[in-house]
Amino acid sequence: KISGSNPNVEASYGPLISLDRVGYKQKIFKLYKFRTMHPFSEFIQEEVFKQNKLNAKGKLSNDFRLTKWGKFLRKHWIDELPQLYNLIKGDITLVGPRALSKHYFSLYPKDLQLLRTSIRPGLIPPYYADMPKNFDEIIQSERSFLLKKEKNPISTPIEYFFKSIFNIIIKGARSS
Q1: Beta strand pairing call for 122-124 and 93-95
Q2: Average pLDDT by consecutive 10-residue portion of the chain (176 residues)?
């Protein structure tokens, strides 16, 4: 069972937010980001999912919670900069599966949930190396990365890092 505190029902309104995410050994930690959604968006994620489901890229379809400036921040990965603090703190590594909300984590198969939380989440997800087209392919990409990492814990993240950087810089891979 996932451990951690209950979500804070008082949303912050500032530009920097901390989000509860499932981390190593299924412990909940605070992931820092610049705000891209309206306040209280995290608390209605499950309802938005029930109404809109996931699009082909594994993101919520028609997600009205995203702000105009949030789209810009995400397109240029500016919203991710505060995660450097999480990286320095040791909550996350450079390459690994993204840290997920409890709800999004619950959408993954149980075996992959256990596999994902056997290592620290990453700033750069493996799917930027594999370029999957839908949620099922994202799951397969993460499973493949994690199984390779078990066998080659040093070379696998390095390989995925360089493939991801190539896809981001040369092929223009971006998050929706």
Answers
A1: parallel
A2: 47 84 97 87 74 65 81 89 97 97 94 97 95 91 97 98 94 73
Pairing, β 16-22 against β 28-34: antiparallel
3-state SS of the chain? CCECCCCCCCCCCCCEEEEEEECHHHEEEEEEEECCECCCHHHHHHHHHHHHCECCCCCECCCCCECHHHHHHHHCCHHHCCHHHHHHHCCCEEECCCCECHHHHHCCCHHHHHHHCCCCCEEECCHHHHCCCCHHHHHHHHHHHHHHHHHCCCHHHHHHHHHHHHHHHCCCCCCC
State if pTM tops 0.90.
no
Please, which residues have CB within 8 angstroms of residue 3's CB and are 6 or more apart in sequence?
26, 27, 28
Dihedral angle over CA of 62, 68, 72, 73, nearest 10: -90
Residue 80 φ/ψ, nearest 5 degrees: -85, -15
